[in-house]
Amino acid sequence: MATLHILSHSPFADSRLASCLRLLGADDALLLSGDAVYALQPDTANLQALQLMPASVALYALDEDLAARGLQAPERVRAVDYPAFVELCTRYAKVNSWL
User: Fold this and answer.
1) Which of 2, 15, 81, 70 is nearest to 40 (CA)?
2) InterPro entries recorded for this chain (predicted)?
């Protein structure tokens, strides 16, 4: 059963990103929102870990949060708006928010 994992906390504050990456299934997706988009900063271990995920795992980031933090979505990441975020929540069988 495919799951959409949603992270909103900075990857520099705790280990949620690392824990999430260990649990991702081949058909899962990861959506970065809020401070979690800091994982996409160039030349960081977090970005390298995200880029090493299997290609079958979809990676998304909220475009509003990227813009608010002055970040660009790397090629591997699809920037989405809020309507697309809602659509993603309906596309996957389960949604897991990493609170």
Assistant:
1) 70
2) DsrEFH-like (IPR027396), Sulphur_relay_TusB/DsrH (IPR007215)
Domains of the chain with bracketed CATH: 3-97 (3.40.1260.10)
Q: What is this structure's pTM?
A: 0.96
How far lies 84's CA from each of 48, 63, 87, in Å?
25, 10, 5
Burial class from Cβ neighbours inside 10 Å (0-12, 13-18, 19+) for residue 22 reads: exposed
